[in-house]
Task: inverse folding
């Protein structure tokens, strides 16, 4: 992990191309899952079904776009991804708002759904207003987190090796010791 963090700091564009391509594959599967659920669950209200289908198609299309951008122009991948993520957050907020309105009309109250709508709108707004800042900050924070996790993993590995060696030497001394020397 330490080396991945260093690699992210030294070559952020190539690392982000690989990472975002993996995320894009997830987006494609999520979009296909949404399309399948559109055809499988016909008891959803019409507006919600249309919104789910639209979001699913856009999510799958966004995943395909990200993979194409990672192959064709990896240097433009992060700014494009920020706008795509903003659009996906905005669509998710609209769909959740429609769900919230439908549930509220039926007398079912989901307070967390309203809060989720607010946060999704807020995240979409931030992504659209500050794409460069958010993109560079995310890369830097993620690299620092991976770097720190790698440093902790290496340090704990070294400490476990040292502890294991000390434990072995203690057990050897205990076997060679005079009977009753280490007993309490």
Result:
């Amino acid at each position: 992990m330490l080396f991945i963090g260093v690699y992210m700091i030294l070559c952020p564009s190539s690392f982000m191309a690989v990472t975002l391509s993996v995320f894009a594959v997830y987006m494609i599967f999520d979009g296909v899952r949404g399309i399948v659920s559109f055809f499988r669950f016909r008891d959803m209200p019409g507006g919600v079904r249309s919104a789910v289908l639209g979001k699913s198609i856009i999510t799958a299309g966004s995943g395909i776009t990200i993979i194409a951008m990672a192959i064709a122009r990896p240097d433009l991948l992060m700014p494009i991804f920020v706008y795509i993520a903003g659009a996906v957050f905005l669509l998710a907020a609209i769909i959740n708002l429609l769900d919230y309105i439908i549930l509220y009309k039926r007398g079912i109250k989901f307070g967390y759904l309203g809060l989720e709508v607010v946060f999704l709108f807020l995240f979409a707004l931030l992504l659209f207003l500050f794409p460069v800042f958010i993109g560079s900050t995310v890369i830097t924070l993620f690299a620092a987190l991976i770097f720190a996790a790698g440093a902790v993993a290496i340090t704990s590995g070294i400490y476990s090796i040292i502890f294991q060696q000390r434990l072995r030497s203690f057990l050897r001394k205990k076997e060679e010791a005079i009977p009753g020397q280490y007993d309490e």
